[in-house]
Write a structure and sequence with these properties.
Elements lengths: L7 E3 L3 H13 L7 E3 L3 E5 L11 E4 L2 H6 L10 E4 L2 H10 L2 E4 L4 H11 L5 E6 L6 H6 L5 E11 L4 H9 L3 E4 L2 H10 L9 E4 L2 H6 L5 E4 L5 H13 L1
Length: 234
């Protein structure tokens, strides 16, 4: 394993990349084989949020939880969270959490099943994979949207590009937007048996190039790191 012939290019926003890298290290991946090169940076908008007017809040990303860290959270306020990582962040922030299986569709169904009686805040990034407000509003829920962070594109660094041009690499991808951005930036790079690993089939399908691919069995950092390491060891 210590002589593994190809690197892993970790491309999430910096804090999320560090969490994934730490998970990979715990599974035996050395720093030599880890290249951190975020293609998205999270910038909080500084939007002022009054949670006192809301019955509950919806989070599709832990980035939104962090953006609300300065808001006063009413005791017992429910947060509907897309997955375990977001749920953990919301719980640590002081929310009572209900957690879906990692997909926006499952999160939408969960909110509809519980049908909160009153306005629900959807705290989100500028780009979203699903129009949550439209889906919930047409079913009779009152949803208030606030953009609390933006996702700014960043260029792959020289180390990542050199690795991609030198030999096989593994590229874990956690969102459809990241898959598209990464694919656009490496459009001129030869396919040297590179493998992308998507957190879902939708993410893999969003990658615009004909590279080898795999899909995680579990929509989580641990699920992604497990399949990445399995491929890395093969």
């Amino acid at each position: 394993m210590e002589n593994a012939p190809f690197p892993i290019i970790v491309n999430r926003p910096r804090p999320a990349s560090e969490r994934l890298a730490e998970s990979l290290r715990r599974k035996g991946v050395s720093d030599v084989d880890l290249i951190i090169s975020p293609v998205i940076a999270i910038i909080e908008t500084g939007a002022e949020i009054d949670l006192g007017d809301c019955q509950a809040v919806i989070f599709t990303s832990r980035h939104a939880v962090g953006a609300l860290s300065s808001s006063r959270i009413p005791t017992g306020m429910t947060a509907y969270c897309v997955g375990a990582q977001t749920g953990n962040a919301a719980r640590d922030a002081g929310f009572t959490t209900l957690v879906a299986d990692g997909s926006a569709e499952a999160l939408c169904r969960m909110v509809l099943d519980h049908r909160p009686q009153g306005p629900v805040l959807f705290a989100r990034g500028r780009q979203v994979a699903m129009n949550m407000k439209a889906a919930l509003s047409k079913c009779g829920l009152e949803v208030v949207e606030r953009v609390v962070y933006v996702q700014e594109e960043r260029k792959l660094n020289a180390k990542a590009l050199a690795a991609l041009r030198s030999g096989r690499c593994i590229i874990p991808l956690f969102s459809a937007r990241t898959a598209r951005i990464f694919g656009e930036q490496v459009a001129g790079v030869p396919n040297l048996d590179h493998t992308i690993v998507g957190i879902s089939s939708n993410v893999v399908q969003s990658f615009p190039l004909d590279w080898g691919s795999a899909v995680a069995h579990e929509r989580s950092v641990e699920g992604m790191s497990e399949i990445v390491v399995r491929i890395w060891k093969a």
